[in-house]
Amino acid sequence: MHVTFGAEDLAFQDEVRAFFRDEYPADIRAAVDSGKEIAPEMQIRWQQLLYEKGWAAPNWPVEYGGTGWTPVQKYIYAREEGLANAPIIVPFGLNMVGPVIYTFGSEEQKQRFLPDILASNVWWCQGYSEPGAGSDLASLKTRADRAGDHYVVNGTKTWTTLGQHADWIFCLARTSSDVARRQEGISFILIDMKSPGVTMTPIITLDGKHEVNEVHFDNVEVPAENLVGEEGRGWTYGKVLLQHERANSSNTFRSEYRLRKLREQASRPVRGARPLNEDANFMRRLAAVEVELKSLEYIELRTLASVASGKAPGAESSFLKLLGTEIQQSIDALYMDAAGYYSLPYKPEQPVGEGNEINTALRYFNFRKATIYAGSNEIQKNIIAKHVLGL
Amino acid sequence: MDFSLNELQTMLADSIARFIDNEYDFDTRQSYADSERGFSDDVWAKFADLGWTAVPFSEEDGGIGGGPADIMVLMESLARGLVVEPYLANIVLAGGILARTANDAQKERWLHPIIGGELHATLAYYEPQARYELADIATTATPDGDGWRVSGRKGVVPNAATADLIIVPARTAGNAGDTDGITLFAVPAADLVCQGYRTVDGLRAAEVALDDVRVDADQVLGEPGAGFAPLDATVDDATLAICAEAVGLMRVLTDKTVEYSKQRVQFGVPIGSFQALQHRMVDMLMACEQARSVLMWAVMLHAAGADSKHAISSIKYLVGTAGQKVGEEAIQIHGGMGVTWDLDVAHHFKRLTVINRLFGNADWHLDRLAA
After folding, report:
1. Distance from CA of A67 to the nearest CA of B (A)
2. N or C: chain B end with fewer CB closer than 10 Å?
3. What is the three-class DSSP state of A116?
4. Distance from the A285 Cα atom to the nearest Cα atom in chain B, whole angstroms
5. Which of A80, A130, A231, A245 is an active site residue?
6. How much is the CA Rg of chain B, to the nearest whole Å?
7. B214 dihedral zone (left: phi>0; alpha: psi -120 to 50; beta)
8. Tens digit of pLDDT for each residue in B42-67?
9. H or E element that contains B34
10. How far apart are CA A29 and CA B50, in angstroms?
11. Do the beta carbons of residue B70 and residue B9 sit within 8 Å?
């Protein structure tokens, strides 16, 4: 039993660390550290910088532009990226629709879509949830009816994250209602957001941000060639994608970064107050979250070791999602308590308080979503109960 | 033994409930919160007309002689409407400390117009560095002829930017942390600098700076150097008041969650039929009942003039832990809808979260209980 990296992996770690130290643009770093949302321009600039480095898609096969890294190298990369507090890659293209297209798409679709996804030339968004289909995703009602060489799409998708910047949307839509199980008859379809009949309504979240949207499809004509894989098999493809989404939502090393920063902040006086590390209650709670995070780190490492030895990842992605999101929320609460009553000011014109205190409450409110999105944590527990415990 | 409301309290609860139902729906509340002053002057005038601003004051001060139990009923009732009018700042804090310290002339000048709804006032109870320690006062006042000169900073002062009068505790003797040597000054807003802002619950607060402000002798409240006791007692009142508000919020959040779980259908059934969620909603209800019980204990002790600090810390700790959990569960069970701006549940949750960072968080109160 050991967790040590070989000389080659250590050299790789040095290379990655140096990259994030030297090539991560200072303006983007400052924006991410401030805890505010970063501009789409910065997001794209960062992803294109990774693309030029050849690191845009660590998980993709080499033939489509992946890195060819071993599982250990991917882990090292994710760790350094998180500890550098680099911008979170907008997942819809690189981590979601990309893998579906290279796994299930036609040769034509691969050639048409993958290069632009890899280079972040095209912004994708996700059309899964509907107003009446959240946790119960299979009850979705958006229809895609075949009419000659195209589909006619009607329905409403919701919680479409950053849809306001998107060029394309991938959707789960019902192509047949004459099915034995509700999971059948659902297809995976790619839709150009500029198509006539596509409209969007912003949804403002409790922290006052415009991050998600409702997307409406009113007789939208979609060429039949935009169907990915076989008609009616979309549920299977979509599940593959959701496992990627869940595994990516643990954010282990960004949590570690935030805890380190909090410890550092606790060691010095802020606003002339006594340092927080003199507050035993606070430090105990901080230490307890650090233990939780260590457990997540080692669950992730054990999953990695199992994948490296050739086993397929399964319900482990649900462990990571459950624990990772709960830890993020615990850290948000700690930040808010560290700020005390200076967590109250809401977007003041002049800064109030110091540094990361400004947005602590807004982040705490915003990240209540983490235990709801990507399959709520209740759904993850159902998955674990069924597939791990056999209940 | 009787835990029922008396006639006055029942009337108060009924009239506030009617007011919220008829005149203060969520959209109206949001429009007041978004307005320039952050609340409605018309609504405030109505509070004065209906006598709600007079509740905690003695009859000789122009009040109706109510006590902590009446304030409990009032704050809990206002919580349902997420009322943004500055009841806490004007009545509980500024009014409360004036009632304790002001002489007749000062009451005539400030307390009566506050009760009448004509004067807005607040209390600058914390400084930026204080972290909930009331006696951590670095603002100083030095004698200047028959008056004083005051300099210092106050942080996150509720409704300070719209106040006409700000009550400022300052140190006239001793060191930061000492309870002796604190003097209370009534300072017109025009004499100091306020940087106002919204707070994350839709209310307003400000950073307040005093730079060598000249204060006359008749603006000193109570005995010089003896300001800590009335300050501490007033903050106890306010802590109990927001705990009552929090208990009201917890109940609203629980009721709305149960209601939503009966309406929201997934997997062909209302989500409220899932045992996993039923048990969690039962836990929410239990937290409400525990909090309400401890609140009543604290209110009774406080009303009787007994030492109520441990009881006040108990209820503040409970709303800060079990109460926060109720809020988080309400959002989680509402799912995506729970994190939207347009649904009132999110705003009840935000107000509850803010209350848990005012007047000592759960850790701070547990420390006080453990000591």
Report:
1. 36
2. N
3. helix
4. 10
5. A245
6. 21
7. beta
8. 999 999 999 999 999 999 999 999 99
9. helix B26-34
10. 55
11. yes
CA distance B137 to chain A (A): 11
The chain A residue lying nearest B128, using CA atoms, is A271
Domains of chain A: 7-89 (no CATH), 124-232 (2.40.110.10), 249-387 (1.20.140.10)
Give the pLDDT of residue A305.
Answer: 80
Residue among B201, B207, B340 minimizing CB distance to A205: B340
| SS3 state of residue B211 | strand
Look at chain B and count its residues.
371
Give Cα B22 to chain centroid, integer Å. 24
Task: Please check whether residue B202 is in contact with residue B82, taking contact to mean a CB–CB distance below 8 angstroms.
Answer: yes
pTM score: 0.96
For the record, the structure tokens of A180 come out as 């034995």
* Smallest CA–CA distance from B331 into chain A, residue: A368
Of A158, A337, A344, the CB nearest to B156: A344
Burial of A339 (0-12, 13-18, 19+ CB in 10 A): buried
State the helix-helix crossing angle for B228-263 and B275-303, rounded to 10 degrees.
160
Task: Report DSSP letters for B102-128, one per residue.
Answer: --HHHIIIIIHHHHTTS--EEE----T
Look-up of token digits 């920063």: A261
In the structure encoding, which two tokens stand for residue A46, read together? 């960062």
Is A245 noted as a catalytic residue in this protein? Answer: yes
Distance CA B274, CA B21 (A): 32
Q: Which residues of B touch A368 (CB under 8 A)?
A: 328, 331-332, 338-339
Which of B356, B357, B368, B369 to probe by mutation at the A interface, max A CB count within 10 Å?
A: B357
For residue B368, pLDDT beyond 70: yes
Residue that is written with structure tokens 């803010």 in the block: B354
**Measured between alpha carbons, how far is A352 from B281 in angstroms, rounded to an integer?**
38
Q: Are strands B147-158 and B204-215 parallel, antiparallel or unpaired?
A: antiparallel
- CA B178 to chain centroid, in Å, comes to 25
The pLDDT tens digits for A180-221 are 898 999 999 999 999 999 999 999 999 999 999 999 999 999
Provide the strand spans (E) within chain A: 124-127, 143-147, 150-157, 168-174, 186-192, 198-204, 210-223, 227-228, 345-346
Phi first, then psi: what are they for A167, rounded to 5°? -95, -35
Structure tokens at A303: 């999953």
A15-19, Cβ contacts within 8 angstroms, sequence gap of 24 or more: A16/A76, A16/A77, A16/A80, A16/A81, A17/A80, A19/A53, A19/A55, A19/A80
Model confidence over B156-171: pLDDT tens digits? 999 999 999 999 999 9
